[in-house]
């Protein structure tokens, strides 16, 4: 074992089972054929079918991230596009979410190599990239997110042999740099194990929310390494010339939503949808979507405060209920 990888930490016993392959299948922590994190959750949610649910985090704070994950969500999305979350807060939130057994996903500001690198090096189980418009952009994103795939077996410093993975996802090859000891710790792996398995375990989701992205959604879905098409309905409706918040009542927008869903499914990919309430989640799940969020931190704060304050309007304004 070399001087660097021997000091890469693993979490103490009792850490969430989500982060390691199930022993029910005879797999071990270093078995590269077993999926980890959100990739595993999505795979397991196919049979029996169930929705993969998450919450949107737009406010910074490890404590908030931890408490949100403790609610029982499958994932918590750390929003670095529209949220008030900088690089340091992202790192803190990702570790806090993973430590509670949920999958941290980072919505990056855009398809830039630096954003992809920082998100995945923090230990995120996946990234969500907004405003994906072309297949070429999607291929570049995949390249940024994947390590170069080894071509042949080589001897290791431990006296063993490093062989290329047989897993389809691990055979993808990109340009991601090796260097972060933080991501392996989040996945409960050594650096060697993480490098060996990260290409198959990190999820790449792209948002279809522009007219160009809608027109190219079938081509984007067919790009190797793109795991999910995720619909941003507000921006999609706005791009189509409709009021963003009225998207559910506009037939043309709903037809576009169905087109993106069909594109994902026809390509053998997952489909995700932004939702703000349980009835929306139920409808989208029945429609065929795999992953949905159920509101988020700011929505929860606003809704709870609005309801409770309204219930006290009579005494707040000096009026009697009678």
UniProtKB/TrEMBL annotation:
InterPro entries: Aldolase/citrate-lyase_domain, HpcH-HpaI_aldolase, Pyrv/PenolPyrv_kinase-like_dom, Pyrv_kinase-like_dom_sf. Pfam families: HpcH_HpaI. Residues 56-299 form the HpcH/HpaI aldolase/citrate lyase domain. Residues 151-175 are annotated as: Disordered. The keyword Disulfide bond does not apply. GO terms for cellular component: cytoplasm. Signal peptide: none annotated. One of its GO terms (molecular function) is metal ion binding. The keyword DNA damage does not apply. Keywords: Lyase, Metal-binding. Belongs to the HpcH/HpaI aldolase family. This is HpcH/HpaI aldolase/citrate lyase domain-containing protein. It comes from Psilocybe cf. subviscida.
């Amino acid at each position: 074992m070399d001087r660097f990888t021997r000091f890469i930490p693993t979490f103490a016993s009792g850490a969430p089972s989500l982060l390691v392959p199930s022993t029910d299948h005879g797999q071990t922590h270093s078995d590269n054929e077993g999926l980890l994190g959100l990739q595993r959750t999505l795979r397991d949610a196919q049979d029996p079918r169930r929705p993969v649910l998450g919450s949107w985090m737009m406010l910074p704070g490890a404590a908030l991230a931890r408490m949100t994950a403790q609610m029982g969500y499958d994932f918590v999305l750390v929003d670095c596009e529209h949220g008030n979350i900088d690089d340091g807060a992202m790192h803190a939130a990702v570790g806090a979410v993973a430590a509670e057994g949920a999958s941290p996903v980072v919505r990056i500001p855009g398809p830039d190599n630096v954003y992809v690198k920082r998100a995945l090096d923090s230990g995120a189980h996946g990234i969500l990239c907004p405003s994906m418009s072309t297949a070429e952009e999607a291929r570049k994103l995949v390249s940024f997110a994947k390590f170069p795939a080894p071509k042949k077996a080589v001897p290791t410093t431990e006296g063993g042999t490093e062989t290329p993975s047989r897993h389809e996802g691990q055979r993808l090859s990109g340009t991601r740099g090796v260097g972060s000891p933080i991501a392996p710790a989040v996945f409960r792996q050594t650096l060697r194990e993480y490098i060996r398995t990260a290409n198959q375990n990190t999820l790449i989701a792209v948002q279809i929310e522009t007219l160009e992205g809608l027109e190219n959604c079938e081509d984007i879905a067919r790009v190797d390494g793109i795991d999910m098409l995720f619909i941003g309905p507000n921006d999609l409706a706005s791009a189509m010339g409709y009021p963003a918040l009225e998207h559910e009542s506009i037939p043309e927008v709903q037809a576009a939503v169905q087109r993106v869903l069909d594109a994902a499914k026809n390509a053998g990919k997952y489909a995700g949808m932004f939702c703000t309430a349980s009835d929306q989640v139920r409808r989208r799940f029945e429609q065929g979507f795999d992953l949905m969020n159920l509101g988020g931190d700011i929505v929860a704060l606003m809704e709870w405060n609005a309801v409770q304050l309204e219930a006290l309007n009579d005494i707040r304004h000096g009026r009697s209920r009678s």
